[in-house]
Structures are given as C-alpha cells and as structure tokens.
Write a structure and sequence with these properties.
The protein is an alpha+beta fold and 140 residues long. The chain has five helices and six strands; from the N terminus they run E-E-H-E-E-H-H-H-E-E-H. The chain has one domain: 2-Layer Sandwich (Beta-Lactamase). Strands 2-1-4-3 form a four-stranded antiparallel β-sheet, with helices on both faces. Strands 5-6 form a two-stranded antiparallel sheet. It is found in: Endomembrane system.
Length: 140
Amino acid sequence: MIRFFLIVNRSCQTRFARYYQSTLIQDKPTFELEVARQCITRKQNQSPAPLVYRVYASLYFIIGCDPEDNEFSILELIQNCVECLDHYFEKTELDLVFNLEKVHMIIDEMIVQGLIVETNQERVLASMYALANQKTNPVT
C-alpha cells in the first residue's frame, strides 16, 4: 500500500504532496524535507528502506510504501505518472506549481486511498480532457 507520494525539486522544495496514511506523520513539512534529503544526498550503495523514487530533470518523484510492496511496480507507477503529466503539461516544474489542482486530479485518477486503481494513460487523461472541454463548451 502506498503511504505517501511526493514530488520535490533539487532544493528540497515540495511541489506536490499526497498522504494516504496521514495519522503517522505529525509535522509534514519537516517529514517532507527529511525524505527529500534522504533521496537527494544518498550514496550509491544506500537505499532508503520504504522509499521508492526516480529523478526526472530537476524533480524527484518519491513514493513511500510498505516494505513488502513490489518496488518495480512502484517504479512503473512513477514512470506512468510522469508520462501522464508530460502529456498533459509542458515539461516544466512551473506547470506543476501553477496547476497543482490538476496534478492532484491526475494522481487521484491513478491512486485512490493508497491503492493503484488505474494505469491506462488514456483513461487517466480522458477525464482531464473531458473537464477541459466542459469548461470551454458550457451546457446551456
């Protein structure tokens, strides 16, 4: 089960945070900073135990999961999230900052209550495009 999903930049600034088991974490900003530091400053032979992450350009996509979860499936989920975000946005960090609600919607289409529910990119983005069309073509 996924415990949290973070997107941070190289300066350890959180760009996206979603918690699926928030009762375990008291001080979220401090927790996010510590997780980001663990991933950014790790040595080659170190691996943070319950964390799975990938680096894309200047962003770290970090997922905290249970130790018994398949790390390769979590890596595939991260890759899928990045591809969905790339299809919907331009490839800049500012798109994530200024359209945070859309990032939340895309991730929420894929992960619900810590469980992966959708991996098909077309289905994930279909709801976003339908919402965009609804705003441009109001029903009278």
